[in-house]
């Protein structure tokens, strides 16, 4: 809802096809998506309590994404 209404949205996703950013990212122009850069960090069966692919996203990267919204270019 945030991205669709013009509010900068940051989404953190695992690098797994059915639940990754490509399918579930926020929509709208001011959107940032983060995920582990290495798909191998994500085990096939992750638990919500110990998800290595989500913890691989550095808190500093999340903070930087929140503080630095993407530039919206005119016309797209």
Which tags fit this structure?
single chain, 76 residues, alpha+beta, two-stranded parallel sheet, 3 helices, globular
Strand-and-helix sequence, N→C?
Answer: EHEHH
Number of helices: 3
Distance between the termini: 19 Å
Strand content: 5-15%
Q: Please state the overall shape, judged from the principal axes of the Cα atoms.
A: globular
Spatial strand order of the main sheet: 1-2
Rg over alpha carbons: 13 Å
What is the helix content?
10-25%
| Uncertain stretches of 5 or more adjacent residues | none
How confident overall, as mean pLDDT?
A: 78
**Which structural class matches the secondary elements?**
alpha+beta
Question: How many E-type strands?
Answer: 2
Biggest sheet character: 2 strands, parallel
Question: What report would you give on this structure?
Answer:
This protein has 3 helices and 2 strands; from the N terminus they run E-H-E-H-H. It has a two-stranded parallel ribbon. 22% of the residues lie in helices and 13% in strands. With 76 residues, it is of the alpha+beta class. The mean pLDDT is 78. Helix 1 links the parallel strand 1 and strand 2.
């Amino acid at each position: 809802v945030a991205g669709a209404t013009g509010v900068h949205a940051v989404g953190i996703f695992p690098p797994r096809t059915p639940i990754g950013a490509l399918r579930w990212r926020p929509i709208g122009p001011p959107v940032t998506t983060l995920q582990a850069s290495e798909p191998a960090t994500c085990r096939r069966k992750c638990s919500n309590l110990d998800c290595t692919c989500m913890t691989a996203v550095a808190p500093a990267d999340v903070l930087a994404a929140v503080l630095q919204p993407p530039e919206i270019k005119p016309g797209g």
